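Any chance you could type out a protein's amino acid sequence plus the matching backbone structure tokens because I've never seen that pairing?

——
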Amino acid sequence: MFGLGTIINIFAIVCGGVLGTFFGKHLSKENQNALISACGLCTLFIGIAGCLEQMLKVEGPHLSSSGVMVIILSYAIGTLIGTIGKLEEKIEKFGEFLKAKANRQNDNNFITAFVVSSLTVCIGAMAVVGAIQDGINQDISILLAKSVLDFVIILILTASLGIGCAFSAIPVGIFQGSITLLAVFIEPVLTSKALDYLSMTGSILIFCVGVNLIFGKKFEVANMLPVLLVAVLFAYLPWFN
């Protein structure tokens, strides 16, 4: 079935959100804060590990030296584009729309929960590659693995931040569904080098999400999303290959 992987992923996120809501009701505020810190710490190291894996990749007898320059330029250009386009503000407004539709006006954490969880489950190579494989070969193995991970992540985040996390199923459906529909056109463009750069810069975004979870909002991560596209474009420039 075309798009089955994304449908399963959406279902896993919703289930994680529902179970997380019931679990969270039995946690004190102190326990919820501890859970947020634990999630943030894990997110930090996942981001660090993913980035360093690409930056320290050996090419021939030497370490690849293009990674640092790609990171610097991608984040400078991409963040500027996102800030000018006010992506963070637009995503938060969408969160406010969902909050109103869900009748959660008294939930002060709703928008934060929605934004943090959406960024966490949408950013990463698994979402892109899995959706492409689903669209071209109807191979849902990558998205099945991602669904299990997302279920656990959303369950824990929902227990600490609230039901807003479950609504991250919407951007996941839009993002992965669009990639699946356009997979035939995207697959030839996504070379191994482009995928490496996507994974490397995406891992830093995940690191920023972890910082926000632990220390409060320090980075406007949504404004940095164009970094991913800029990094992929760099993969086609001879100076970065």
Remarks:
- The chain is about 75% helix and 0% strand.
- The chain has one domain: 4-18+33-236.
- Residues 4-18+33-236 form one domain.
